[in-house]
Design a protein that fits this description.
Layout: H1 19-29, H2 38-45, H3 56-64, H4 67-122, H5 126-130, H6 135-155, H7 168-196
Helix pairs in contact: 1-2, 4-6, 4-7
Length: 209
C-alpha cells in the first residue's frame, strides 16, 4: 500500500493533490486575508472577474484540501517571520546607534584633550590676567564650545563604517578656536573697563576760578 510522503510545510502540495488543484489553492492562499474567498480565487484562477460563483469541482478542492485552515496557518507563519525580522532590525539599529554614541564620545574626549593642552599653554598669559580672566571663565568657554561640537557630532555622526580619524591640524584648530574665544572675552572685558573708567576732571570744575 502506497503512503503519501510527508510535506515539509502544511501548505505544501500532497501526493493526492493534482497540480491544477494546488495551483488553484496557491491563488486562494496568496489573496489578502480580508479579501480571501473561494469565489474570489476562482475569478482569478479562471481569469473570469465577472463570475458569480465557483463551480462544484473548485468547491470540492477547497473543502477536500482544507484551503481555509491551511491558508490561515500560512498567514500565521508569515506573521512570525515578520515579527522576527522586525525584532532583528530593531536590535541591529540599537547596536548601530550605540556604536555611534561611543564613537562620538571618544571623539569628544579627544577634542577636549587637545583643547585643554592649548588652553594650558596660554593660562599664564599676561593679557588674560590683566583682563581678569580666571580659570573658571576658561573652563566655561571651553565647555560651551565643546558642547556645541558634541551636539553637532551626534546629529551628523557618520556610519559605523565611516572614517572617524581626524588630522592633528584639525584637532589643533579646535584648540586654537577656543583660545581665540578666550582672547575675545579678554578683549571685551578690557573694553568694558576702559568705558567705565571716570574721566579726569577738567580745570576749573572744582569750583575754583
Amino acid at each position: 500500500m502506497d503512503t503519501e510522503k510527508p510535506r515539509e510545510q502544511l501548505w505544501h502540495r500532497v501526493d493526492s493533490e493534482s497540480g491544477r488543484a494546488y495551483e488553484a489553492f496557491k491563488v486562494y492562499m496568496y489573496l489578502p486575508p480580508a479579501e480571501r474567498t473561494i469565489v474570489g480565487a476562482w475569478r482569478l484562477w479562471s481569469d473570469n472577474p465577472d463570475a458569480g460563483r465557483e463551480p462544484p469541482f473548485f468547491q470540492n478542492w477547497a473543502r477536500n484540501f482544507a484551503w481555509s485552515e491551511i491558508a490561515r496557518a500560512h498567514d500565521h507563519h508569515l506573521e512570525v517571520i515578520r515579527e522576527a525580522g522586525m525584532e532583528e532590525a530593531i536590535k541591529e539599529e540599537a547596536a548601530r546607534q550605540a556604536r555611534q554614541v561611543e564613537q562620538v564620545r571618544f571623539r569628544f574626549h579627544e577634542i577636549m584633550s587637545v583643547a585643554y593642552q592649548r588652553v594650558m599653554e596660554r593660562l599664564n598669559d599676561s593679557e588674560w590676567s590683566e583682563a581678569g580672566i580666571r580659570m573658571s571663565d576658561i573652563v566655561k568657554i571651553a565647555q560651551l564650545h565643546l558642547e556645541g561640537i558634541e551636539k553637532l557630532g551626534e546629529r551628523d555622526a557618520p556610519s559605523p563604517e565611516g572614517d572617524w580619524e581626524e588630522s592633528e591640524d584639525e584637532d589643533d584648530e579646535i584648540g586654537r578656536r577656543i583660545v581665540e574665544e578666550v582672547d575675545a572675552e579678554a578683549e571685551e572685558r578690557r573694553t568694558e573697563e576702559d568705558d567705565t573708567e571716570p574721566e579726569e576732571g577738567l580745570p576749573g570744575e572744582d569750583g575754583q576760578n
